[in-house]
Design brief:
single chain; Rossmann fold; binds ligand CA2; five-stranded parallel β-sheet; 5 helices
Length: 151
């Protein structure tokens, strides 16, 4: 008997503010609403998610080191760390788990400094620009990838 696929959902700095500010860029959906939508979507596919948000780079690295061994894949919106953090990229590689990167906004239609991501090169795929739906699309893609690779 196989156990349920477990996905770590990681939200980086400032994403706790979703729904409360800058709605013209990030929409009005809160992080709690995104997490519960992901939980429901996962359960419908016989999987489970475990969500974590931090404003601290080291806390995100610690969480990945501690929790990834108990998970099969990682869905991450690294927030502003997308464009700055070698440490987060290294921690993701260190998990040896497939990573899907998501962003609410289309980072390529925004300022030039957002066009480069330290995570994309080690991710199996990237979804951006669809608001909170980027997360559900990313989860779907990650679960499909995991079931392909489970055979
Ligand atoms: O579009 C995304 O999801 C981003 O990862 C969001 C990051 C940004 O630095 C990336 O370039 C793209 C910023 C997260 C900040 O979230 C806020 C939400 C509401 C109000 C203020 C900030």
């Amino acid at each position: 008997m196989s156990t349920a696929i477990r996905v770590l959902v990681i939200h980086g700095p400032n994403l706790n503010l979703l729904g409360s500010r800058e709605p013209e860029i990030y929409g009005t959906t809160t992080l709690a609403e995104i997490n519960s939508t992901l939980e429901e979507a996962a359960v419908n596919r016989g999987a489970e998610v475990s969500a974590f948000q931090s404003n601290h780079e080291g806390a995100l690295v610690d969480h990945l080191q501690q929790e990834a061994p108990q998970a099969q894949g990682i869905l991450i919106n690294p927030g502003g760390l997308t464009h700055t953090s070698v440490a987060l990229r290294d921690a993701l590689v260190g998990t040896d788990r497939p990573v899907v990167e998501v962003h609410c906004s289309n980072i390529f239609s925004r300022e030039e400094f957002r066009h480069h991501s330290y995570v994309s090169g080690i991710a199996v795929g990237v979804v951006c620009g669809f608001g909170p739906r980027s997360y559900t699309m990313g989860l779907e893609a990650l679960l499909s990838h995991l079931s392909d690779s489970r055979g």
